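INTERNAL AUDIT FORM
Audit reference: QA-55
Scope: verify that the stored structure record matches its stored sequence.
Auditor: D.O.
Record contents follow.
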Amino acid sequence: MATWIWVVIAIAVVVVVALVAVRARQRRTAVLRDHFGPEYDRTVENREDRRAAEAELLARQRQRAQFDVQPLPEATRLSFAEEWRELQERFVDQPAQAAGAADALITRVMEARGYPMNDFDTQADLVSVDHPDTVENYRFAHAVQQRAQTQQASTEDLREALLRYRSLFDELLRPEGDGAAHAQVIADDAEAGEIDSSGPVAADAEYDNHRIGRRDG
């Protein structure tokens, strides 16, 4: 066979391999963007490039799949819900203390569910795998709560923080399936470039905005 034919074949193989690689990256991007939503965009903005951001999100998924995060028993769910009602009622007279209690309560709920208790940023990254639509609310609320410790947050800031804590709190208390298995499936699909269409479940609770930070009457 003539040399030029081998050259053409080699070039064709290189082109095919390159096209397959590009398509695989596109599918992986679609999987991650579909699952993480706004968290995907935030991670891309905070990293040096898209590839580094996607590698970080895949690492979060693999790490999350290592933990056995389970739904709460019904009695525990009801107990946590009652604690939330009590701290929300305290907000009118003690807004900073109520925000701090909300932060601590969510940490306890995470621990009861099976999330590892690490530094805040690591906790938020792990939670982002299961709750990508509300994790930024968690970050916002925690930042306000930190400012409140040095009297740098207004009552309206704290009210907003409590509402945002509530969005994640409701999702954490919601009965779910096998979260670890779902996280592993998402990670595997992203690696393989297969799109998972289930996506995260968005928070659908109606919040009692008028009851937080405002006296009746």
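Auditor finding: record pair retrieved intact. The chain is about 70% helix and 0% strand.
Action required: none
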